[in-house]
């Protein structure tokens, strides 16, 4: 009998009606002859509510008592899901991080799962009882609850699937991953299958349908992962399947076009070498300024040019830190540009394919979109462009790579 | 070193500000050289919110998954209290029903505490760590959470106090028990000390400052119990101490005057004997009609008169049930009267003291308040009077027994 873990996030648990609908989806899967387990997040808004209380009492993320408060959110929602399944005539039982247990280690607020007691789940599932597991949490060696960080329920779901030999359906508010944002390009199509790496690139770039660590974990444990919508009728979400790259029939070089708004570019000119770069990124790390793209080139005169992109919100801090280096590095000049956006072409078929880059530059040039900075990874080419031209760039690239063909 | 358990109910935990204030009270007690533990309820409204969700998903009280959902409320509030204590520079740690554990048995929603692991609490308190214990819940033999029923956090507090050899302060929104309702008689005075039995009578009659089982438990385990207000500055609530009757300097015969509005009287005349009474109360029990006072007398003619009081809300159902008996008992006549109220004089000094009854009848007669029905227990005399005259009756009795002298 095939086994399936269904994960329902906060919006899928956003009140009794949403919970009842998610229960109907789980019931549908069980009716198809599958042994089912369910992993849930706290009800929408609940984690923020509890965290707000904790913060106003001097506690923040990364504090053990805060974790105990937050973990209550998933305990309650798991119990409510169990009730909803029982109301449909199914057998169900709440399982928490402490009751199973799900063992974790590491600091509160960002703990790692080290072991899941699979046998009790195994027994329940064989007895036809649906375990409803509180996500996002586990028990540490001191017997205290610790949470896994934002999106940690995805990780719980994948880890549970690995522990009981199940496939894993992550339910969210979109019917899978799309070739680009349908709000920008209405012709965007659902991606049927995608590799773990391409999924990671899309997730890291703002298409936050899956938590990064959960994708890595699924890849490492060879767990079949699907992204589906809990806002469709039971059985109606086709979703996107995340599969081993080797299993992909590589019909398509490019999987999708992603984007990120509110980007800024920071340039260091006339720097005396790697020392300035090291000092800059050390200062950024200390000040928690997140750096995205980094490019380095040698200018015709005056040494290396180092450029990086940061969020527009972080730019003032980043600029101040960069200018603070001027006293240490003679001749250092700082420049910046804001109001930019990043557009990225992602696909496992990109590796070494110069034609993909050629298309990107050609298409953007024809659209009058100048590329301010570009960087590539194994499966991604990203370009920083004028923010006002972002949507034109996304639509043009989406069309040029033939993504609208479905 | 003396030990003290402080219990904070829902209103004392009604949001971050209230929690911070309750933490200040606990900190004050710790600063007086006491080893302190704290037991908390869920934040005000939280249990009702979670129960509402559970009910709309087909779960009610008495269902194991509902209990798991409800118990999350105390887990969160305990963690928030621990944070608030830490913010004051104290050491504190959340303790839940499952983590200690607090062992319980019996049905979900009305479980009984069977054992509390006192040693971990003992160790924490000796190490200067304040255990903050989630009330209202425990772990049953199946490893599931079960709740103790409404007011169960009082019981947790008393049981914890018994387990660690502590006294127990129950914090609520009133500064102890009063000789009567200050809204009716502004001269009402705080009762400094009261016996467990008198406290039980007052609690059962609507002065719901303490849960009945917790008072019985405190009496059985000889735990010193105080009722205090968390709405005063730390150290400012004198409160009421519940003590062994033997320890009471019986300066006072009467402890207080309690009342209950919206009462009704139901009379059965011409009944052929105890069979009719039995049939009536069997019908009430089946229909969940709560009967309060029951009196029986022999009328000059026509056999016994049986009278009982029920809430005005229950009267229509009670009356229909009584009239339904007419077909089975020939000559049975039913009468009823609504718009009544009950006034009760409570005190351990009442036993066998006819003068207390004499005063009651005399005072009410002088005030023009006719007694419709009266009943006595060991430590209480209750009279059913016209609801419109209730306040006059309460004030007159309160004055007549010298309760305003403080």
TrEMBL record, chains A, B:
Q: Which GO terms describe its biological process?
A: homoserine biosynthetic process; lysine biosynthetic process via diaminopimelate; threonine biosynthetic process
Q: Which residues bind ATP?
A: 7-10, 172-173, 183, 208-209
Q: In which pathway does it act?
A: Amino-acid biosynthesis; L-methionine biosynthesis via de novo pathway; L-homoserine from L-aspartate: step 1/3; Amino-acid biosynthesis; L-lysine biosynthesis via DAP pathway; (S)-tetrahydrodipicolinate from L-aspartate: step 1/4; Amino-acid biosynthesis; L-threonine biosynthesis; L-threonine from L-aspartate: step 1/5
Name the positions where substrate binds: 47, 74
Group of enzyme by EC: transferase
An example of a Gene Ontology cellular component annotation for this protein is:
cytosol
Keywords of this entry: Amino-acid biosynthesis, ATP-binding, Kinase, Lysine biosynthesis, Nucleotide-binding, Transferase
Q: Which domain of life is it from?
A: Bacteria
PROSITE patterns linked: ASPARTOKINASE
Q: Which GO terms describe its molecular function?
A: aspartate kinase activity; ATP binding
- Indicate yes or no for the key word Nucleus: no
| Ranges of residues in domain Aspartate/glutamate/uridylate kinase | 3-228
Entry-linked NCBIfam families: asp_kinases, PRK06635.1-2, PRK06635.1-4
**Which family is it part of?**
Belongs to the aspartokinase family.
What is the protein's name according to its record?
A: Aspartokinase
User: What high-level taxonomic lineage is stated for the organism?
Assistant: Bacteria, Pseudomonadati, Pseudomonadota, Alphaproteobacteria, Maricaulales
